Amino acid sequence: MKTYHTKAENIERNWHLLDAEKQVLGRLSTKITQLLMGKHKVDYSRHADMGDYVVVINSRKVKLTGNKAAQKMYYRHSGYPGGFKKVKYSKMIGEQPEKVIELAVKRMLPDNRLRDKRMRRLKVYAEVDHPHTDRFEKEKEIEKKAK
Asked: pLDDT band at 39, cuts 50/70/90?
């Protein structure tokens, strides 16, 4: 018996378009994480970067359950004395709605050498407009030809 491992040049990366409007942040983030890692593929390996590209639109319209919209805080520390910062969710979603989804996904991904590579394949936009529309049009044409 031999174990097959997909080589880097044989990995096919697809593009996925997700609309965040009226979706719960945590559930959307887990779906994005699985797509970035490649867990939805048959030949998934933990040590290989097999994930796809993910484009998320309408990040401004993502929702939280319960009282989290009023209570959730984002914490960070610069490493210097007095460098502790905290920002409310309501302020973050108003100023940087893309950052809310990026942070949720980044914190769900395993903290290893592949995390930065996977995060580079995540594209988040606050509104419907995004520069990757041609990618999805090409995939639709390929699907039509296959039928």
From this structure: very high
Q: Is residue 139 in some structural domain?
A: no
Establish if 136 belongs to a structural domain. Answer: no
The answer to whether the beta carbons of residues 64 and 25 sit under 8 Å apart is: yes
CB neighbours of 13 closer than 8 A, spacing ≥ 6?
51, 52, 53, 121
Q: Where are the alpha helices (DSSP H) in the chain?
A: 25-37, 68-71, 89-95, 97-108, 115-120, 133-146
Q: What is the pLDDT of residues 94-131, one digit of tens each?
A: 999 999 999 999 999 999 999 999 999 999 999 999 99
On whether residue 14 sits in a domain, the answer given is yes
Q: Cα–Cα distance between 83 and 69 in angstroms, integer?
A: 25
Per the structure block, which two tokens stand in for 137?
């049009």
Q: What residues does 75 pair with on adjacent strands?
A: 86
Task: For residue 102, count other CB atoms closer than 10 A to its CB.
Answer: 19
- State how many domains the chain has: 1
- Calculate the average pLDDT of the chain: 93
